[in-house]
TrEMBL record:
GO terms for cellular component: cytoplasm. One of its GO terms (molecular function) is phosphatase activity. InterPro entries: Ap4A_hydrolase, Calcineurin-like_PHP_lpxH, Metallo-depent_PP-like. Residues 1-189 form the Calcineurin-like phosphoesterase domain. This is Calcineurin-like phosphoesterase domain-containing protein. It comes from Pedobacter planticolens. Pfam families: Metallophos_2.
């Protein structure tokens, strides 16, 4: 029995479509969604249609609770306008479908019990379950040996006392410095867990966001660069002449996006490409950053050897970050990207630690 697990779609129909199409290339028996079908963006109706087409079994997330009336939304939140717009667009049938979703699922496959949460056992919709919080004794109550969580938008996996604690990551709005759609599969018969991160047509999603007045610019930044920022983006286009020679000499690097800066995807083995971002802001500053290099709960990062490297830390882990004035950046763009590539090459991304 092989199952595929997704979560935190947040109405990103393009990312979900890519994941579901990818599922047809594997022998998947069932797909499960750990909640947050809606929220932040406006493609909830299309997402519901895709989930039904692929017979995905879903539970509610906190944003789905807002739609169903099970949870109360804060009208001061930046996603409130997108929530109101979504409510107007959804049919009664679609609202009823969301309302009918359970808050939790317990699976029994090949002798294994699997608990599916959006948040965690103490608060099914809203608990943030980070790896540093997980202790085996906290999860002894029903004899399960697989525990899957969502809500944090961070893909992780750890093993404690013959129990696996997993988060498939976010399909539509990752927060680990990797814009791609995240998910994982579990082969219950062979106890094999495989995390995935796949590219999708992010440019179409960006266009949808720019077209809508209901989507807050903060989430556009998160969508493109895989992490949050309160700084407004600038629609600056990098002069391709700066990049042409560099890209020619590095055929394993692909340009994914050129709006508000640049996304470069560096092809690596084991489906774990490194991502380098160049973000332009309205204050005439530029930030060049990487996807998460190593998660902060892993203790095998020797920072003493990396004193000269600009490493930042957020809830996902460590990543490279350098800041420039826009005028200075354009003079040295190839050197800046080369430095970022040198840094990411020193690390091997560890999606799942078992």
């Amino acid at each position: 029995m092989k199952s595929l697990f997704i979560a935190d779609i947040h109405a990103n129909k393009y990312a979900l479509k890519a994941v579901l199409q990818h599922s047809t290339t594997q022998k998947i028996d069932q797909i499960y969604c750990l909640g947050d079908i809606s929220g932040y963006f406006e493609g909830t109706s299309e997402v519901i249609s895709l989930l039904k087409t692929y017979d995905v079994k879903c539970i509610k997330g906190n944003h789905d609770g807002f739609i169903s009336g099970q949870a109360q939304i804060n009208n001061k939140k930046a996603y409130y306008e997108a929530y109101l717009s979504t409510l107007k667009k959804l049919t009664n049938q679609e609202k009823n479908w969301i309302s009918s979703l359970p808050n939790q699922l317990i699976l029994k496959e090949k002798g294994h019990i699997t608990n599916l949460y959006h948040g965690g056992p103490n608060d099914l919709l809203n608990e943030y379950t980070y790896p540093s919080k997980i202790k085996s004794s906290y999860f002894e109550w029903n004899g399960a040996n697989f525990f899957l969580f969502a809500h944090t938008h961070l893909q992780f996996g750890i093993g404690i006392n013959n129990k696996l604690f997993l988060n498939p990551g976010s399909v539509g709005l990752p927060r680990n410095g990797d814009y791609r759609a995240h998910f994982l599969t579990i082969d219950f018969e062979n106890i094999d867990v495989t995390p995935y991160r796949i590219s999708y047509d992010i440019n179409k999603m960006i266009d949808d966001c720019l077209y809508s007045k209901a989507i807050h610019p903060t989430y556009l930044h998160n969508l493109i660069f895989g992490r949050t920022s309160t700084k407004p983006l600038s629609a600056h286009t990098i002069d391709q002449s700066y990049l042409q020679e560099f890209i020619t000499l590095n055929p394993n690097i692909y340009i994914i996006n050129t709006k508000f800066g640049l996304i470069l995807e560096i092809e690596c083995i084991q489906n774990n490409a490194n991502i380098i971002y160049i973000a332009f802001y309205q204050d005439n500053t530029v930030e060049i950053s990487s996807s998460t290099l190593v998660f902060h709960w892993q203790l095998d990062l020797n920072l003493t050897e990396m004193n000269a490297i600009n490493l930042e830390k957020d809830s996902a882990g460590y990543y490279y970050l350098a800041k420039y004035e826009k005028n200075d950046f354009n003079k040295n763009i190839k050197a800046n990207i080369s430095l970022a590539l040198e840094i990411v090459s020193k690390f091997k991304i560890k999606n799942v630690k078992i």
